[in-house]
Each structure stands twice: as C-alpha cells, then as structure tokens.
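Sequence design from tokenized structure. All designs in this work follow the same two-part layout: the structure record, then the generated sequence. An example of the structure record is given first.
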C-alpha cells in the first residue's frame, strides 16, 4: 500500500477497503500442497507464484514453507540465478533471427574462445553429449548447455541482454554464461517473463491490488495498468509448442527430458532449471502461469532436486481440475506440421510443431 501512496493521514483515519487479485481458494490449496512436502531440513525452502494468463493478476504467492517460522518472502525479495529457465527467452531471440525448431547445432564438449573474454567451457549434466547435431526441440527438452551457448554466440550477448532488461530486470551482464541463466531475479520477475510467453508476447507488470476504497466507498485507487508488447506473437506461438518437449519420452537420448515423469493432466509449456543451491519449474498454458522454486537459504548444496517437480505437478493438476483446459492454436502466419526429432524428418508419425508459413 505504501507504493500506491495511500498511507495519508486522512486515508488512515477513514480506513481502507482493499480488493486484491489474490484467489483465496487457490492460495489455500497451494499452502496445503507445499505444507505436505515440507522437509525436515529447515534450510530447504520454497516459493510459488501463480499468475492469470493474459492479465497482470497475481492469484497466489507463497514465500516459504511456514510464515510463522520465517516471514522472509522468497518469491519477492530473494534474487537468485535462474539457471536454464532463461533458455526459452534465448531461443525466442533465435527464432526472430531466422532459427526454427529444426535448426541444428552440434552438441559436444566445446571450449569457446571469446574475444575480450577468453576461454569458456560449459558442460552438460554428467558430461553427456550427443556428439552430433541436435535441433532446438531437443535442446529445449534436454536442456543442452552447448546448444544454448552456441545460440548465444550467434544471436549476440548484447542483444540477449537487451531482451532480458526489457522485462525490467536489472544488473544483467553480457557474458557467455548468461545463456545458462547466471542473471539473478526474483521468482515473481521470472514468472512475469513466462507469463509473457503465455500471453503471446504481451507483458503484464504483476499486480496484487485491483481496487482500494475508503470506508465511505470512495474509490482511491484502481489498477489501470495495460500490457506492453515485448515479444512477437508468431515466434512465441512456435516457442510455446516446443515447450511441451520436457514431458515427451520420445525425445530421450543422451539426456532425459527434464519433466518426463511429471507430466500434468493437461497441456503445459514448461522448463526446469537447477544450480547447486536452486531448483525451478516454470510452466504455463492459456489459463495460468506457474513458477515454483525450491532451494537452500544458506547457499549450501541442495540435496533434493525432485521436490520442486512434485510440488509443480500437484499444483498444476489442481489448476486443471478447476479450469477448462486449453492450448494455443496457430494463426494465419503459423502452420502446424508433424516432425520427428528422433529421425529429424517431417513425417506423419511425428508430433505437431509450429513453423512460420
């Protein structure tokens, strides 16, 4: 309320009636779900954000397992490296620079030498590589780090920095490691980026308060914020269709799709991300955008990387039970085509992916 400039003496004396965007039933259910998964290790914490798609409304926000034990709100106040959850934004930038879902780059152990920076040697989990060409569909589903860094080299780190900062994210450095999510942001900020994917390119600044009245029902504040177009609709549609790959078993090869055992009951685009202290699942469909983080407050090694996936699946299945499921259709400039990433062929046996006409 301080940020709305409503703490004036007169308003204080009259009292305020605040109409928020928070969905009480949803918030209660999220609290119930995360409460069931509360670990015995008190250093492990959680945060959850749920936004309404095509809207600025924050429907639910939770900053920890137990507010009575810790009032610090990790969804708002904790800025952490976002890891591989940044890759979809990088691949969106690639899509507007003439990449497509079938664009191939070689996944192999690579030492990059970068002008004015020096040597950089990213690695995949367990040092596993295709040692051959993979496409963007596989790169997203398997979270291949080599493909991501090569993509950044091709689209330009300064261009990627500009795209990230367009979402009001501060302190972004144009480094080769930014392809792997070294930029820090809050879970709410990260969720607002994913809500832009979900809203087909329209960015909505997250909002908790809709209306404020005084005790005489005089309107003191009304949220009239509007969306801002930050991403192109066509490329966002193409990205969204690829973002289902994390659940697809037929994409498993040298690495495994990162949510292969945690597919919700309805369609979602999703991406995971991990550091030694953090684990994320970010997901969305035309109804909701969801961000879940589990990590350690102390910065110590996180021991349980499954917990965030379990919480994610339970929350999405609840959301699906209260809202009719839907997904994104093509438009006149985007065509649906069947493609098989395992054979890298367009075939009637493949899954549907979106391409520019």
């Amino acid at each position: 309320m301080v940020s709305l400039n409503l703490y004036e003496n007169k308003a204080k004396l009259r009292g305020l009636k605040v109409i928020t965007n928070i969905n009480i039933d949803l918030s209660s259910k999220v609290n119930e779900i995360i409460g069931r998964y509360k670990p015995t290790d008190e250093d492990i914490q959680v945060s959850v954000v749920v936004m309404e798609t095509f809207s600025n409304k924050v429907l639910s926000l939770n900053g920890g397992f137990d507010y009575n034990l810790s009032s610090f709100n990790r969804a708002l106040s904790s800025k952490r490296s976002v890891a591989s959850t940044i890759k979809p934004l990088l691949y969106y930038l690639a899509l507007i620079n003439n990449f497509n879902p079938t664009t191939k780059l070689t996944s192999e152990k690579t030492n990059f030498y970068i002008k004015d920076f020096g040597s950089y040697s990213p690695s995949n989990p367990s040092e596993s590589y295709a040692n051959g060409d993979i496409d963007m569909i596989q790169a997203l589903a398997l979270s291949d780090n080599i493909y991501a860094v090569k993509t950044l080299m091709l689209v330009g780190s300064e261009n990627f920095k500009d795209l990230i900062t367009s979402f009001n994210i501060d302190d972004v450095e144009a480094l080769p490691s930014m392809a792997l999510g070294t930029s820090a942001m809050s879970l709410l900020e990260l969720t607002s980026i994913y809500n832009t994917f979900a809203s087909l390119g329209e960015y909505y600044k997250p909002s908790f308060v809709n209306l404020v009245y005084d005790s005489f029902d005089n309107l003191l504040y009304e949220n009239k914020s509007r969306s801002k177009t930050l991403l192109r609709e066509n490329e966002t549609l193409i990205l969204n269709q690829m973002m289902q790959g994390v659940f697809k078993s037929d994409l498993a090869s040298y690495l495994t799709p990162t949510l292969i055992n945690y597919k919700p009951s309805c369609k979602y685009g999703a991406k995971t991300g991990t550091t030694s202290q953090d684990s994320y699942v970010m997901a969305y469909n035309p109804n909701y955008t969801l961000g879940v983080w589990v990590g350690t407050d102390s910065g110590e090694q996180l021991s349980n990387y499954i917990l965030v996936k379990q919480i994610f699946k339970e929350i999405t299945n609840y959301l699906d039970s209260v809202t009719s499921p839907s997904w994104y259709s093509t438009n006149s400039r985007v065509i649906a085509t069947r493609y098989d990433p395992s054979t890298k062929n367009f075939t009637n046996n493949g899954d549907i992916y979106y391409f520019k006409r």
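The first helix runs from residue 9 to 14. We note this feature because it recurs in several other targets discussed in the main text.
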